[in-house]
Description:
The structure holds two protein chains of two kinds. Chain A is of the alpha/beta class. Chain A is built from 13 helices and twelve strands. Helix content of chain A is 34%, strand content 20%. In chain A, helix 5 packs across helix 10 (292-301). In chain B, strands 5-4-6-7-1-8-13-12-11 form a nine-stranded mixed sheet, sandwiched between helices. Chain B is an alpha+beta fold. Chain B is globular. Chain B has two domains: 2-322, Thiolase/Chalcone synthase (Peroxisomal Thiolase, Chain A, domain 1), CATH 3.40.47; 341-461, no CATH class. Chain B contains twelve helices and 22 strands. In chain B, 51% of the residues are buried. Chain B has helices at 18-21, 38-50, 76-83, 100-114, 135-139, 186-209, 226-236, 258-269, 302-308, 316-322, 341-346, 348-351, and strands spanning 2-10, 14-17, 28-31, 60-65, 90-95, 120-126, 143-151, 157-166, 172-173, 182-183, 218-221, 275-279, 284-292, 311-313, 355-359, 365-366, 382-386, 392-399, 410-416, 421-426, 439-446, 455-461. The A-B interface holds A 118-119, 122-125, 128-138, 140-141, 144-149, 152, 197-203, 245-247, 249-252, 256, 379 and B 334, 336-337, 339-340, 343, 351, 364-368, 370, 374-375, 395-405, 409, 411-413, 415-416, 419-425, 431, 436, 447, 450, 454, 456-458.
Amino acid sequence: MESIKDRVAIVGMGCTKFGELWDKSEEDLVVEAAYEAYEDAGVEPKDIQAAWLGNVRTAMRGSALAIPLKLEYIPISRVENQCCSGTDAFRNACYAVAAGIYDLVLVVGFEKLKDAGPERLRARYQYPDLFPQVPLGLPAQEFALKATRYFHDYGLSYEKGKRMLSRVAVKNHHNGTMSPKAHFRKEITIEQAMKAPMIAYPLGLFDACGVSDGAAAAIVTRSDLARRFRDDYVLVKGIGVSSGAKQAQLRDDEDLVHFEENVRAAKMAYEDAGISDPLKEIDLAELHDCFTITEAITYEDLGFCPRGKAREYVEEGVFDLDGELAVNPDGGLKCFGHPLGASGIRMIYEIYKQMQYKAGPRQRKNPRLGLTHNLGGTTGAYTVSVAIFGQKE
Amino acid sequence: MLGIVSYGAYIPVWRLQRSAISAGLRGEKAIAGFDEDSITMGVAAAVDCVGNIERNSIDGLIFASTTSPYLEKQAASIVAKALDLRRDVFTADALACLRGGTIAMRIASDMVRAGSATRVLVTAADCRLGAPDSHFEQDAGDGGAAFMFGDSSEAIATVVGSYSISNELMDVWRLPGEAFVNTEEDRFIEEEGYLKIVEEAISGTMNKYNLTSKDFAKAVFYAPNIRCYRTLISRLGFNSNQLQDPLFDSIGNTGAAYPLMLLVAALEEAKPGDKILLGSYGDGSDVFILEATEHITRKGRGIKAYVQSKMIIGDYRKYLKWRKILPLDRGRSVLIPKPSLKEMMRRQDEVLCMYGTKCKVCGTVQYPPQRVCTKCHSKDEYDKIRLSDKKGEIYTWTVDYGAGGLEPPIVTLTNIEDGGRAFCILADASPEEVRVGLPVEFSFRKSYQEVIPEYFWKARPVRING
C-alpha cells in the first residue's frame, strides 16, 4: 500500500452560497460551483477528462453532472457514502489521478435538501433496518444518544455537559459571521444556546447544524502537473475512509463515547501524511459538527485532546479561530450549512482558501496542514472520511 | 379431566379519570396507550398466563375480541407469532361477539376434553369505543385476560361444567366502517337482553348441575354497567361476599375480556375447593362452573397487581387523540411509509418474536439477527434466541422532539440481560423517569400512524417487580 501524500494537487475550487435557496435548482448550484472552479483553475470545461459527483438523495448516475455542465461523453461516476459522499468522490478522483489514468478531473458535491422538507431526512428507505422498532427520528436522535452517554460516562451534569456543547455552537456561530457564503451568519450567546428549544434531549436547536442547499467543486491534477495551472496549488497529504459494521449496536460491551470509525479513518490519514501529534502539527480542521456533541467527541477520536477532556479544551479556547488548532473556521456544518453531498468539498474549499491566504477575516496566520472530517450513518455503522491537505513545500 | 392450568391478565397502565370526560363522574377507566390495541393486550395477557410454561407445549391458541384490527385476516396468528408458539399450533379467532372470551374458553375446554389438544391458550382483549360523551364511553375500559386449559392434574381449577344459550337480539352492534358501538334503548336492551338472558342461563346451569347459589364461593358476572350489575345480582340472590368486585370504578367494562378478567381476580382470592360461577353475556350467554384445586396458589401478575400499577391521565383530549377520534396537527402527523410486506415477512422472527442470534462459537448475542458474527466472524454458526421475555437496562436514551407523531418518543439503546443490545422505544414512561441504568422489560406494541398495523416490541420500565 502506498501513501497518497503529495501525489495529487488541487488547482481550482468553487462553492455556492449555502442556505435555503428556494430560487435555485440543483442544476443552478452545480453550474455555479463548477464554473467558479473552472475559472479558479484557469481551465475550460473541455479540459476535464473525467468527473466524480458526491450526492446522497437526488442525483442519479453521471448524467446529473453531464446534463447541467454539458460534459460530453466523459466518464462520470456518482459516489454515495452518506455524509462522506463529497469527500469520497474526491478520494476516488485523487486515486484515478495518482494512478496516472487522468490528468485533470472535476469533483462536484451537491445536495438540494430544502425542496423535500424534513421528511427527506427520515425516509424509511434510508434505514429500513431500524423500522419499525425506532420511529422516524431526525438524525438528532442518533447523536443525542451519544450525548446522554457522554455526560453519564464522564460524570457531567446536564448543566456542565450542555455548557460544553453550547460553547462549541457559540464558536462556530462566531466563525460563521466571517463567512460570506455561510447559511447562518449571526453570533449567539452561551445562554441562548443553553435555553434553545430541545430537539432531542439533551440536544437543542443550537446544537444542530443547518439543513441547507448548496454545491462545491474541486479540480485536481497530478502534483507534477500542478504548476501548469497555478503556483499556490494545495497538496493532498492523506485520506482515510472507514465504515463500521454496526459493532456499537450489536455488541453490548461497546461504549458510545467514541466513534471507532473516526479513530480508524484518522489513523489511515495520519499514516499517509506522516502525522504523529495532530494537535501540534495540524493548524486548522473542518470537523463534521452535524451536532455539537459530534464535534466534541471527534476532538478526542482524532487525537486533538485526550479522552474525556473535550470540555476543558473547548472552554480553554484551544479550538477557537485564534486557538492552537482552529476547528471549523468557516462556521462548520453548524453555520455554513449541511447539504449532505456538498459538505465534504465545502470543507476542502475552506482549507484550500486558507492555504492560499484568501480566507479574509477568518485567515489563520501560517496554515501548513489542514484536515477535513465527515461522519454519516447510524450507531456502529457510520462511514467516516478524514482528509489532510497542505501547502507545497 | 379438564382444568385451567394457569391464568394471566393485562391492564394498560393508563387510567382516564372519568371526571375528565364530564365533571362529577366517578372513578377511572383503564385505557390502552396509543401504541396498544386488542392484539397487543392479548399478547400481554398471554405472556402473563404462559409464565414459565414451555411454549412448545401449547397446541392451540384462541384469541377473542370485538376489536380486532382486521375485518379479514386472523389476529390469533399475530398473537401466536409474538408468543413464539409452535408452527403446528391451532389458531382461531372468536371475534365480533361480546361473549367471545367465554366462547373461546368453551372451544378450548372442549378441545382438551375431546383429546385433540393437551394445552390450549385462550386470550381475550378489547378496546371498544363509544361516541364521545356517550354513556358507553364512560363505562368502557380496556384490558385483557388469558387462560391455559389443560389436564386437571396440573390445574389450578377444574372445569366442573358449562352451559350456553344463544339469543338473537339487536341490542349492541357495530357495522363495518363504524368506529363506535351502537346500542338500542336502555330499558329494552336491559330487560329483554342482558338481565333476561343471564338469569335464564344461570338458572339453566343450576338446573343442569343441580346446584344452588349457596354452593358457590364466588360468582363472577359480566355487566354492561354498574346499574345493570346491581339489578342482576339482586334478582339472582347471591349475597355480597359471594360477588366478585366488577372493577367499574377502576377499570370499566372491558368487553369480550371482561368476564375473564373478573374470573382472574376471583381465582387470585380463591381457596382450594372453592366453586366459582362465571356468567358472560353477548348474543346469548355462556356459564362456567369451576372449582379451585390445591394448586390455586400459583399466580402470575394477574388483576390485582395490574389494578394498582397505573398512571393517571386527566386530559380527555389526550385520550381522544390516542383513539384517533381527534386528528393531529398536520405538521406533526407524519405518516410512516408503508413497509414492504415482503420485508415484513422476512423479518418476522426479528420484529414479532424479537429473536436475536447467539454465536455458537463465541457466545455473543446479537440483535437483530446476524449471519456473520460481529465478534468472531463465524458464518452461519448461531442459535436463535428469544429476547422478548428477558429483562434489560437502558444504556442510553433521548427524547426525540423532532420525530413527529403523537408524542415525542423516548428512544433508547437497551442492553439485554444475558447479552445483546437493542434500539427500543420506551413505552409507558415519562421523560422525567428515564435514566441510564433504568431496568426495563419488553412489551408488544403497535405503531400509531401506520398505513397498515405494524407490531413490534418496545421496552418499558419494569412494571411489577417479582
